[in-house]
Amino acid sequence: MPKDTLRITEIFYSLQGEGKTVGLPTTFIRLTGCPLRCGYCDTEYAFYGGETRSIDEIVQQVKELGAHYINVTGGEPLAQKRVHELMKTLCDAGYHVSLETSGALDVSGVDPRVIKVLDVKTPASGEMAKNRHENYDCLTKQDQVKYAICDRDDFQWSKQHLQEYALSDKCEVLFSPVQGELKASDLANWVLTDKLPVRFQIQLHKYLWGDEPGK
Question: Residues that bind substrate, according to the entry (predicted)?
């Protein structure tokens, strides 16, 4: 690809479905490609294809959509090295930028103004071995770690992992049930019973629109 381009699956305007800015109008930039194959992945359509876009073209579309909040996601956005330049450009333009990453790739080079959201891979994902534990040293109070939980075994593992790496001391931690795998009320009760220092969340966008792309 030309030097200043990225491969983009979609750019769209919607409500943020997770995390600190849940419910806020947000522009999502979904990059193409991912080296992981999680069993519960809901964005397999972003593994291949996409359209080559220049950073200037991407920023222009972001401007036209009009949201102050920008979410860079995938696939796995860090699989494309030029994403760092894109995020820096968006921050320089005054946008509030967050990055959703699997945590399997190095986040140390992410612009410090970008909010990092690391999606820790649980046993049921099938990709637990790819968790890059060195990334936890790069977390700050503005960042978030998310556990997508499929069952009771996932919950127990996530609780132990959270404690082992003292993640709740580093940043905000999110526990989320995988839709169709675990009842949200079950996870909520487990969090309360064990008095975990985490934020329970459901994926608002899935409640509103299911797995419809571009929502």
Answer: 15-17, 30, 73
